[in-house]
Amino acid sequence: MDTELRETEALGKRLDWKPAAAPGRQRLAGRYAEVVPVDPGRHAHDLFEASHGAGGDPAIWNYLGYGPFADEASFTTWLAERAASTDPLFFAILDRATGQALGMASYLRIVPADGVIEIGHIWLAPALQRTRLATEAIFLMARHAFETLGNRRFEWKCNALNAPSRRAAIRFGFTFEGVFRQHMIVKGRNRDTAWYAMIDRDWPAIREAFEAWLDPGNFDADGRQRRPLAAREAAGASPL
């Protein structure tokens, strides 16, 4: 093999590629959940009550760079700043049955030229955690990232100490790619960051696993799942 051919192979196969679209402030609707652009006028009170009220949990904020908030006014000010941002682009997660906002997520580190987008700034009020709504919200954002926007890579990053987030990433079909040591300083503390991702060739099987899990027939009369979400296995990993 001559030097030129080796160099060509090392560069990899040339892609038939066009840049992804940038996300906009679209509403993403599912059977149980809606993911909508965050609006302080519509969502601030619900989000504050769900996270800081009687049913809230301060631990929501342990691994985020903000929160908890002293009062609803300061939370609303913060939310207005988030609503004005385009990267991160923030969304509220709503219970479709009630219209109540119970959590947030965002697209961030958006690089259409490379077809890369991340989901982050995820926080779920206790009423949203471990529900069909929460799982469907992640599915809606992943589906939009791949199928509507045309991305090649969908990323999930979290504090390496955040065990619930790491379990969630695996459950949703993301592949663990490593830990970036001393990656950030958050609230005066070191953050090693665990990196996860799924890529476009993983997505069809992961989508099928999500759809099977979200089907109403997968839940009994009390709302308990009959079969666990198998997105990890769909992505080619061994079962947990």
Q: CATH topology, what is it called?
A: Aminopeptidase
Strand order of the largest sheet: 1-2-3-4-5-6-8-7
Query: Which CATH class applies here?
Result: Alpha Beta
- State Rg: 19 Å
Overall tally of domains: 1
Estimate what percentage of residues fall within beta strands: 25-35%
Secondary-structure arrangement, i.e. CATH architecture: 3-Layer(aba) Sandwich
The general outline is globular
In DSSP terms, counting alpha (H) and pi (I) runs of 4 or more, how many helices?
7
What is the number of E strands? 8
Query: Unreliable runs, pLDDT <50, ≥5 residues?
Result: none
Tell me the CATH superfamily. Answer: Gcn5-related N-acetyltransferase (GNAT)
Arithmetic mean of pLDDT: 93
Task: Tell me the helix content.
Answer: 25-40%
The biggest sheet, with number of strands, parallel, antiparallel or mixed sense and barrel status, is:
8 strands, mixed
Task: Describe the SSE topology.
Elements lengths: L2 H9 L16 E2 L3 E5 L2 H13 L19 H12 L5 E7 L5 E11 L4 E9 L7 H17 L4 E7 L3 H9 L3 E12 L2 E11 L3 H12 L16 H4 L6
Parallel strand pairs: 5-6
Antiparallel strand pairs: 1-2, 2-3, 3-4, 4-5, 6-8, 7-8
Please characterize this protein's 3D structure:
α2 (40-52) packs across α3. The protein is globular, with a radius of gyration of 19 Å. A hairpin with a 5-residue loop joins β3 (89-95) and β4. It has an eight-stranded mixed sheet with strand order 1-2-3-4-5-6-8-7, sandwiched between helices. With 240 residues, it is an alpha+beta fold. The protein contains seven helices and eight strands, in the order αββααβββαβαββαα. The chain is 32% helix and 27% strand. The mean pLDDT is 93. The protein has one domain (25-234): Aminopeptidase, CATH 3.40.630. The longest helix is centred in the middle third of the chain and has 17 residues, at 132-148.
